[in-house]
Amino acid sequence: MKDIIAQEIKKVYDELSPAIESFTSRVCPECSEPCCRQRFGIYEREDILFLKTLGYEINDADDRLGPEERCQFLSNRGCTRPRWQRPYRCTWFFCAGLLEAMEADSPAGYRRVVDLLNKIKQLRMELLGLK
Ligand code: SF4
Ligand code: SF4
């Protein structure tokens, strides 16, 4: 059962990722201080459970790097980890500027992102046995 839920979460991530990137691709390249820090790239126990259920080999962030250093997975073209392989917190973070742009540029696109985020949240609670 857990593997079915985990597959469903991955499917929603695959749908969500281009929806978020339609905004971040316009806003983030102009950013003077990208939010991706090494400490955000480190998995939590719940992330590891999800990824292991999918049979993913865990490749965690290098803990020899300082927590406030630029995340080792950040490239000039954004995060090198597919979204479903990122820590959960990475997908939930939207800075104020990005949120403003999302709401102003496409209210429908923004609502779709919120709906898909909530779907992942619900499924994740099921996976963790919290629902
Ligand atoms: S989400 Fe905000 S803070 Fe992070 S890189 Fe994009 S614009 Fe910068
Ligand atoms: S989105 Fe990617 S680059 Fe940014 S903190 Fe998360 S793992 Fe690192």
Task: Please render the helix and strand layout as text.
Blueprint: H1 2-27, H2 45-53, E1 74-75, E2 78-79, H3 88-92, H4 96-105, H5 107-127
Antiparallel strand pairs: 1-2
Bound molecules: iron/sulfur cluster (SF4) (2 copies).
The site of one iron/sulfur cluster has 9 residues, from helix 1 and helix 4.
Task: Give a written overview of the molecule.
It is a single chain. This protein has 131 residues and is mainly alpha-helical. It has one domain (2-127). The chain is 54% helix and 3% strand. It is built from five helices and two strands, in the order ααββααα. It has a two-stranded antiparallel sheet. A hairpin with a 2-residue loop joins strand 1 (74-75) and strand 2 (78-79). Helix 1 runs antiparallel to helix 5 (107-127) and helix 4 crosses helix 5. The model has no long low-confidence stretch (mean pLDDT 94). One iron/sulfur cluster binds at residues 36, 40-41, 71, 73-74, 79, 81, 86-87, 90.
Strand content: under 5%
- Helix and strand pattern: HHEEHHH
Mean pLDDT over the full residue set: 94
For the biggest sheet, the summary is: 2 strands, antiparallel
Q: What is the overall shape?
A: globular
**DSSP helix count?**
5
Give the radius of gyration: 15 Å
